[in-house]
Specification:
By secondary structure, the protein is mainly β. It is about 10% helix and about 30% strand. It is built from one helix and eleven strands, in the order βββαββββββββ. The strands form four sheets. The chain has a three-stranded antiparallel beta sheet.
Length: about 120
């Protein structure tokens, strides 16, 4: 059986074909086969500590106390961060955000979970 691509919008795995379009029943997103090939090559896939797909604008919660270089304070477990941005961090820091009490910072995806 042919493996169909996951939804580029929500990451859903239950996509199906309708003519020359792929359709996701979870979020009702439709895309063409050509768009799915281009999306597979350029897509930045960032998943949280639980394996949930993260997207720009998501809210996350820190799951571990984190030390901040150059600061005596750190980020405590349970800190809620609103409106993250995903970036291509070559050193593993794929989340760009503003942490309350700390300021703008980049975080690694394995230290957050989706709220």
């Amino acid at each position: 059986m042919e493996q169909l691509p996951n939804c580029p919008k929500c990451g859903g795995e239950y996509t199906y074909e309708d003519g020359d379009l792929f359709i996701c029943p979870e979020c009702a997103h439709e895309w063409s086969q050509d768009a799915s090939l281009a999306a597979d090559e350029d897509a930045l896939v960032v998943k949280d500590a639980n394996g949930t797909l993260l997207q720009d604008g998501d809210d996350v919660t820190v799951i571990k106390d984190l030390k901040v270089k150059g600061s005596s304070s750190g980020i405590k477990v349970g800190t809620k961060i609103k409106g993250i941005r995903l970036v291509d961090g070559h050193d593993g820091h794929n989340i760009d955000c503003k942490v309350p009490g700390v300021g703008a910072i980049k975080l690694k995806q394995e230290f957050v979970k989706k709220s």
